[in-house]
Amino acid sequence: MLGLGDLNLTYLVSITFVSLYVSTLAVLFSAAIGLPTALAVGFRDFRGKSIVTSVISTGMGFPSVVVGLVVLLLLSRSGPFGEFELLFTPEAMILSQTVLALPVLVSVSLSAIQSVPQDLRDAAFATGATPADVGLLVIREARYGIVTALLAAYGRAISEVGSVLIVGGNIVFSDSTSFTRTLTTAITVEARKGNIETGIALGVILLALVLSVNALGARFRDRTPGGERQ
Amino acid sequence: MAIQRRRFLQAAGVGAILGLSGCTGDSSPPQAGEGETTASGGTSGGATQELTLATTTSTYDTGLLDAINPVFEEKFDARVKTIPQGTGAAIETARNGDADVILVHARGAEDEFLEEGYGVNRRDVMFNDFVVVGPADDPAGINGMSSATDAFAAISDAESTFVSRGDDSGTNKKELLIWDAAGVSPAGKWYREIGKGMGDTLVQADQSGAYTLSDRGTYLATKDNVDLEIHVQGPLKDGPTILKNPYGVIPVNPAKYPDVNYPLAMAYAGFLTSPEGQEIISDYTANGSQLFFPNALSESPQFDQYVPEDYDGGNTSASVSDPQFEQWVSENVPEDF
Amino acid sequence: MTDSNRVVGHESVGESASVETRLTARGLTHGFGDGAILEDISITVEPGEILAVVGPSGTGKTTLFRLLALFEQPDSGTVEVGGEDVWAMPDEQRLAVRRRIGMGFQTRSLFSTTVADNVAYGLRVRQSWRTRLRDAVEDAFGQTEPSPTVERALETVGMSDKIDRDARSLSAGEAQRVAIARALAPDPDVLLLDEPTSNLDPRNTAAIESAMREARDRGIAVALATHDMQQAQRVSDRTAVLLDSTCIESGPTDRVFETPSDDRVRRFIEGKLVY
């Protein structure tokens, strides 16, 4: 099995699980924050809107390591939120990944949402929709773009290494179960040890994971009622 | 690494079975802890305590901690959260109060950490040494030199490519100390700081035909993947004392951070320096070679492990520790190592 | 039945109930920035009649209809439904009033889903979140029968056979008919149609006009914005003429077309007024 000979199954399964767990929750949180934000920014005209949108797209390229360092400072015992003892936990990783996934999600879904014609929103309103209904309708109309946004955010979260390494601490317990080690940070360990083949093998697993998530997303997208029909 | 981990668990398991059946041998380390294990077994229903250990990558990547920590965890009903970082980063983590105990190898930085009051009760744990490695064709002609500073000076003169960790790790600190001692401030295109871990650095040095400074443990563990050769040996093989690589354990001062698990950190320091912990260290091998030499046990008191390295009326550094170190080497390292 | 006088007379109990649904605009003035688009417009749509609002493009018909559909509050003037000032109401009550008004648009406005889902939209948003969630779950696990209301609304526009089609696959005319079915499905008291047949072929135009008449016959107050004089003459009971941002003439359609009191109206009707 391609250079994985010296990694046991418990280890592989648990780092994969941590990767999925952290990225999935991070994407869910950023969707919960990001979609309403995209709706609000997309539909409203306000002073400084162009500044807000360019700040959001700049956030897409924000260095993850910097996010990691900021979260580290905040969560450290000597930092403002030290009392919660969140540093070096999966929760800290979810926090930093949410921050990283958010701009991607908002930015991509914003353009999808803005491409929903005004006419459809008007039609919904005139058919008796409340603002919340109109928002839901727009999300439904923009579902292709939003699923793409979710996948892009997921891709960013699951393949990211800099910030999870810093705020997670790359911890594995002595029974080979991962606490805060993900596939990506496991790859850094292998690289550090010079085990290039093992690192690449882990990369292949990561790639397969991202691929399956994308396939799942595409499937969901195509099966949504009113979506592309066979 | 995982093979070794599995092998160890197997060995421990076998030892336990033998222990139960009464056919005890004196070879199974878990037995020493059996009394305590049973004692703490009464508390096993209670919460398992967690110990956050910030440490250098060399102890982690070589698999040593995979051999030590399970035994400690069993004995103290604890869970060790190991954060492998460079020595600089590990000390910084502890300085922020985010670790309970550190296991590192940069005496100067450790002393500073202690003097600032962040750490207490430092203990020597073990040592190995650094080696200067490089391509087989040895463009700077340093092979066999008995002085690391001469070798570094030669590399600088020849402007042969040198790859530096550049990550404030213990190895990096040692490397800078050697340049300093050689009277060279490395600069120029031949000197490359890469900010990577030891294994990456060895791979990169290998790929670019460069010299680098490596701890012996990681070099031995990585040897199969790279074509680098040792050109200057460390003190374990009669090399210069400047290449010594001593590891210390330091609990974080509970007076600075009341939330740290100080009792468990002290237990960890105590375990590492106990006969049992020291035996695990000396039994641990990779590629058939012993990687670390324990030095916590001694017939006579070792004051220098508690006081700053240069403590000797403020005179030249290493005046106390170097003879001490040489003594350890002669006592612990087999002739044929 | 198609006689507007029947309604104007307010004779029966049924009609006294429908008086409450009369839509009235009083002194509407509205604009964007520099100039007023609408100036002091007063207009009434009675239940059971079709009011045609005619005028050349750019005279503010669409703005007027958006104000009538409560998209936004006019700069000045009032919109009243059943005699009550809509913008003086609390939000919740205004939503209830708004839900008694249906609207069709000039542009394509169907959602990217099936015809049935489109027509059911107005019914769905009027239900509790709990019911909607349950329906969504049921919908996800198998086909649910379209409600009779949806089927009836599609019948009105002659689109029953397209109920399962994807709305995006419809022609422009078919889409417009479905959009009107969507407006009719929640059984509104007022139906506003903004240029519903511009650029449509005669067959689709006829289907929409027939739907308008059927709505009127059910007692719905129908307002139709159109630039097509012949259509206004064909279907409406009363006509209001918008010119230069204001209403220059209104009255029974026959009278307005035969003896316009304003010379500009006469020239406009004869197609001689060019903008």
Produce the secondary structure layout.
The complex is a heterotrimer of chains A (230), B (337) and C (275).
Chain A (H helix, E strand, L loop, with lengths): L8 H35 L5 H12 L3 H12 L14 H25 L3 H9 L4 H11 L1 H16 L3 H7 L14 H10 L3 H28 L7
Helix pairs in contact in A: 1-4, 1-7, 2-4, 3-4, 3-8, 4-7, 4-8, 5-6, 7-10, 9-10
Chain B lengths: L1 H20 L12 H8 L7 E8 H5 L2 H13 L1 E8 L1 H9 L5 E4 L2 H9 L7 E12 L13 H11 L3 E3 L5 H13 L8 E3 L4 H10 L4 E4 H7 L6 E4 L11 E8 L10 H11 L2 H9 L1 E2 L2 E2 L2 E2 L26 H12 L5
Parallel strand pairs in B: 1-2, 1-3, 5-6
Antiparallel strand pairs in B: 3-9, 4-7, 4-8, 4-9, 4-12, 10-11
Helix pairs in contact in B: 7-8
Chain C lengths: L4 H4 L4 H7 L3 E10 L2 E11 L4 E5 L6 H8 L7 E6 L2 E2 L5 H8 L2 E4 L10 H11 L3 H12 L7 H9 L15 H13 L5 E5 L7 H16 L3 E6 L2 H7 L2 E6 L2 E7 H6 L4 H7 L6
Question: Can you tell me about this structure?
Answer:
The complex is a heterotrimer of chains A (230), B (337) and C (275). Chain A has one domain (9-223): MetI-like (MetI-like fold), CATH 1.10.3720.10. Chain A has helices at residues 9-43, 49-60, 64-75, 90-114, 118-126, 131-141, 143-158, 162-168, 183-192, 196-223. Chain A is mainly α and 230 residues long. In chain A, helix 5 crosses helix 6 (131-141). Chain B is α/β, with parallel strands linked by helices and 337 residues long. Chain B has 2 domains: 2-128 and 246-332, D-Maltodextrin-Binding Protein, domain 2, CATH 3.40.190; 130-242, Periplasmic binding protein-like II (D-Maltodextrin-Binding Protein, domain 2, 3-Layer(aba) Sandwich). In chain B, strands 1, 2, 3, 4, 7, 8, 9 and 12 form an 8-stranded mixed sheet that branches. Mean pLDDT of chain B is 82; it is low at 1-45 and 314-319. In chain C, helix 9 links the parallel strand 7 and strand 8 (221-226). The longest helix of chain C has 16 residues, at 202-217. The radius of gyration of chain C is 19 Å and the shape is globular. The chains are: A mainly alpha (230), B alpha/beta (337), C alpha/beta (275). The A-C interface holds A 119-120, 122-130, 133, 137, 140-141, 225-226, 229 and C 69, 71, 95, 98-99, 101-103, 105, 107-114, 117, 121-122, 125-126, 139-140, 166-167, 179, 182-183, 186, 192. Chain A: Belongs to the binding-protein-dependent transport system permease family. Chain A: It is found in: Cell membrane; Membrane. Chain A: One of its GO terms (biological process) is transmembrane transport.
